[in-house]
Design a protein that fits this description.
By secondary structure, this protein is an alpha+beta fold. The protein has two domains: about 250 residues, no CATH class; about 110 residues, Chitinase A, domain 3 (Roll). The chain has a four-stranded antiparallel β-sheet with strand order 6-3-8-7, sandwiched between helices. A three-stranded antiparallel β-sheet has the order 2-1-9. A two-stranded antiparallel ribbon has the order 4-5. A hairpin with a 5-residue loop joins β4 and β5. The protein starts with 7 loop residues before the first helix and ends with a strand.
């Protein structure tokens, strides 16, 4: 989880009006112990609230692709309903939060009275925005909502505190990214409807090589590889790459590119699957290099946090009550839905995406944005 504390209040306000509207009824014992960390109980109310909020967000993003009942489907091909996977991840996240809560003071980290008040106000606004059936279905009482928000805020502060301890020096040579354009001409042959592949003949391969040489010569003359490729019904692709990052370039292509100086074209590069022509646009793409630098810094921040958290987690006595967790009906559907607004009165707001763990995907919004957008309803899956 990499959440900036600067976005805390926007995050809480987003939660405050995110879910409203309910049909059907779910009754759970929110006081039941879903899990415990070093003897401290995690109530079912917190697990279910956090799960339902995440579910509503995911429904709005993935429902159109996988259907409203995606929580009941085996989307990962593991034989397990996706809802169980999300539920278990929520439990893992709350276990982490409880460990952080128990140990944050060792780092001198705690929530300020202002931050606690913001969590309380957000929880109260959330309760006021939703009908009783929705709140019951989410086991969303003031204590559960407030505590989950406080836990998330505290984890954020701990993360940022540890992030400040990293070495921020990332030399250019460690992250430099080159930018190339290349044209690819496939030579793997043709495949029929039965999956049978017919390899290209020597004459066909020779013709493809001639085409690539024509593209190369035309590009050298015009300086425009893209136009030269299009003239032969092919397409030029532009990518950036470095030595240590994951790249879509195969090793043969990368090796050929690394032989080029800036502004140079390769000869036709032959591999087992395609012929290529490469143009080195830049030996130092500033934007891509800076992005890679930030990726390295983010990895170091995560490592600093993990190095603090993991020993605490390994030493913790954690129990999970599967019988209690299984009382959560995963066939229920929670949807975000847009409320009607007066577009003439709407104003632009600054929205920033917050990076987090798998079960915590939230857009940071301004107070005005949050007050006017999201609502949700809960229904029975068909």
């Amino acid at each position: 989880m990499k959440r900036k504390i600067a976005g805390l209040f926007a995050l809480l306000l987003t939660v405050a009006t995110a879910v409203t509207g309910c049909s059907g009824r779910i009754t759970l014992d929110g006081t039941a112990e879903a899990a415990s960390v070093n003897g401290v109980s995690i109530p079912l109310s917190e697990v279910n609230f956090y799960l339902r909020y995440q579910q509503a967000q995911m429904q709005s993003m993935y429902g159109a692709y996988f259907g409203e009942d995606f929580m009941s489907q085996d989307l990962m091909g593991t034989g397990t309903p996706y809802g169980e996977t999300i539920r278990d991840t929520v439990v893992d996240t709350l276990e982490e939060y409880y460990i952080v809560e128990a140990n944050a003071e060792d780092l001198g980290v705690s929530l300020s009275e202002e931050e606690k008040a913001a969590a309380s106000e957000a929880a109260q606004a959330f309760l006021a925005a939703n009908d009783s059936e929705t709140l019951e279905a989410m086991t969303a009482d003031e204590a559960a909502v407030t505590h989950v928000l406080e836990l998330a805020a505290l984890q954020s502060k701990v993360y940022q505190t540890l992030a400040q301890t990293i070495d921020t020096n990332v030399p250019d040579e460690d992250v430099v990214q080159k930018r190339i354009s290349y044209v690819r001409n496939d030579i793997t042959g043709t495949t029929d409807g039965d999956g049978n592949t017919t390899e290209l003949s020597a004459a066909e391969l020779a013709e493809k090589e001639i085409t690539m040489n024509e593209i190369l010569n035309e590009a050298k003359e015009s300086g425009d590889l893209s136009a030269a490729a299009e003239a032969h019904d092919l397409t030029a692709t532009t990518v950036t790459y470095g030595q240590d990052n994951n790249s879509s370039l195969n090793e043969d292509l990368k090796a050929a590119a690394d032989e080029l100086g800036e502004g140079e074209f390769s000869d036709v590069v032959k591999t087992d699957s395609a012929y290529y022509v490469i143009y080195m646009e830049s030996l130092f793409d500033e934007e891509a290099t800076e992005t890679e630098r930030q990726n390295v810094l983010a990895d170091r921040e995560q490592e600093a946090y993990d190095n603090w958290l993991n020993p605490l987690r390994e030493a913790a006595e954690i129990t999970v009550n599967d019988e209690v967790l299984n009382t959560i009906p995963l066939e229920k559907i929670f949807n975000m839905k847009q409320e009607e607004t007066n577009t003439e009165e709407s104003t632009d707001t600054d929205t920033t995406n917050t990076e987090t763990t798998d079960t915590d995907t939230t857009d940071e919004e301004t107070a005005d944005d949050a007050a006017s957008t999201d609502a949700a309803e809960e229904t029975e899956a068909k």
